[in-house]
Amino acid sequence: MDRFDPLDENMESLLSHESDSRDIYGTIKQCPPEHPKESAKGFTFAEVGCIQTRNSEVTCCHFSSDGKVLASAGHDKKVVLWNMDTLKTESTPEEHKLVITEVRFRPNSSQLATASFDKSVRLWDAANPGYCVKAYNSHPSPVMSLDFHPKKTDLFCFCDNDNEIRYFNLNTFSCTRISKGGMAQVRFQPRIGHFLAAASDKVVSIFDVETDRQTLTFQGHSEIVNYICWDANGEYLASVSHNLVKIWSLVTGECIQELGSGGNQFHSCVFHPNYSTLLVIGGISSLELWNMAENKSMTISAHENIISALAQSPVTGMVASASHDSSVKLWK
C-alpha cells in the first residue's frame, strides 16, 4: 500500500458539467438523466455527457491525443466520432463486416485504426471520416486488439485469435514482424514505448519492442485476463479478469496490489487522468473507483449492462465508458 502516494486530502473538486447540452446532440438518442455525482474528500466523479448508439453493443473507445475527439465502436460495425467541443457526432461508413473489437487513435494525429472480427484492420481519418484511408483485409483470423507506438507513430501492432502479434508499418501498411503471446489485448508502454504488454489467457507478457524478447511474465490470475492498461508513466500495469484486478510493477516484476470483484464482475480499467493512484474499473453495470494508496474503493452506478471499455484524456481530465447497453458516457 505504501508504494503509492496517498490522494491529497484537499484536492480540488472535479466539478460536474451542470448545464444540460443534450439538445444539440442532433439525431443522437438522449440517455436517461445523468447519475448523481459521487464524492469523497472533495473528490467528485460525475456523469457529464452521454450518447446513445443505435441499439447495439459498444465494445471499445479511445480519445485523440488532444482530447478533442472520442471514438467508439462495436457491433454496429462503424466508428462514432464524438466532438468534445461541439458535442456533435459523425460516423464512418460500415465497411467492417463484423463487430469492431478495437479503435485507437494514432498519437498526435486525427488518424485512427480499427480492428475487427472480420479479420481486417482499417485506417481512418477523423477529419474526413467518410471513407477508409487504408485497409488490410487478408488476415487469417479475427483481430482482437491493436495499439500505436507512442513515439514511432508509423508503427502499430495488433493481436489475433490465434495468439499472434503482428507489427505493422503504417506507411507501407505491411507486416514487419510476427510474434506470439497476445490474444485479448496489446498495449505499448506510454511515452517511450520501450515495452509492449500483451494479454493471453491468464497471463500478461512484457516484450522489449526493439529486441522482441519477453522480459517479464505476469502470472497469478485464476481466470482469463480480458483487459490491461498502463499508468501514465509506464511504471505500473493493471490487468483485469472477471474476478480480480492486479497491479504489477515493471521494476520488480511483481504484483504489488490486487482487488477482488466481490459480487461484481470486472471487464475493463483505466488509470484516472488526474490522480495516478486512482484506478477506474468497469463492471457489469457499475464503475469501481479504487484508491490504491488507501486500498479503498467506491462503487458508482453507471450503465445498464457490461462496461466493456474505458478511456481517459490527461488533457481534459475526462474519463469515457463504453457499454453493451449501447451508450458511451463521459465522467469528470
UniProtKB/TrEMBL annotation:
<dbReference type="InterPro" id="IPR015943">
    <property type="entry name" value="WD40/YVTN_repeat-like_dom_sf"/>
</dbReference>
<protein>
    <submittedName>
        <fullName>Uncharacterized protein</fullName>
    </submittedName>
</protein>
<dbReference type="Pfam" id="PF00400">
    <property type="entry name" value="WD40"/>
</dbReference>
<feature type="repeat" description="WD">
    <location>
        <begin position="93"/>
        <end position="125"/>
    </location>
</feature>
<dbReference type="InterPro" id="IPR001680">
    <property type="entry name" value="WD40_rpt"/>
</dbReference>
<dbReference type="InterPro" id="IPR036322">
    <property type="entry name" value="WD40_repeat_dom_sf"/>
</dbReference>
<dbReference type="InterPro" id="IPR044716">
    <property type="entry name" value="LEUNIG-like"/>
</dbReference>
<dbReference type="GO" id="GO:0003714">
    <property type="term" value="F:transcription corepressor activity"/>
</dbReference>
<dbReference type="InterPro" id="IPR020472">
    <property type="entry name" value="WD40_PAC1"/>
</dbReference>
<feature type="repeat" description="WD">
    <location>
        <begin position="51"/>
        <end position="92"/>
    </location>
</feature>
<feature type="repeat" description="WD">
    <location>
        <begin position="300"/>
        <end position="332"/>
    </location>
</feature>
<keyword id="KW-0853">WD repeat</keyword>
<keyword id="KW-0677">Repeat</keyword>
<dbReference type="InterPro" id="IPR019775">
    <property type="entry name" value="WD40_repeat_CS"/>
</dbReference>
